[in-house]
Amino acid sequence: AQQPGTPLSDQEYHQFFNFLRITVQANTACHLREMYGCKNSLVQRLDEYENHGVIPPGPICSELPENTPFQNFCTFSLYRCIMKKYFLKV
User: Fold this and answer.
1) pLDDT digit string (tens) for 35-57?
2) CA of 12: how far to CAs of 3, 5, 83, in Å?
3) Cβ(58)–Cβ(78) below 8 Å
4) Could you tell me if 38 and 44 are in contact, meaning their C-beta atoms sit under 8 angstroms apart?
5) Which of 34, 41, 47, 57 has the most beta carbons within 10 angstroms of its beta carbon?
C-alpha cells in the first residue's frame, strides 16, 4: 500500500483518469437526455449503443436493492442520471 499523501503510480493515474473520462462522458449523455428527451435521435443512438443495438422494451428491472421495475429504458436511464448512478445496470 502507498503511503498517505504520496502521488499515484503511473498505473493508478491511468485508472484514475480513465474513470474520470468515463464519468464525464456519462454526465454529458445525461445532459443530452435531460435537454432533448428520449425521442431525440442522438439519445436513442446512445441507448442503442449501450444495449448492443436495440433499446429494450419495458418493463426494465435493475440492480437496485428494491428491484422496482421501470416502465421503459428511458425512465431507467433518466433515473440513473438524476441519482448520478451512471453505471447501474439492467
Assistant:
1) 999 899 999 998 898 888 988 88
2) 14, 14, 27
3) no
4) yes
5) 47
- Find, among 12, 18, 19, the residue nearest to 86 by Cα: 19
Contact 59, 69 (CB under 8 A): yes
CA–CA separation, 49 vs 39, rounded Å?
A: 15
Task: State CA 23 to chain mean position distance.
Answer: 8
Report which DSSP code applies to 87: T
What are the structural domain ranges in the chain?
Answer: 10-83
pLDDT at 45: 92
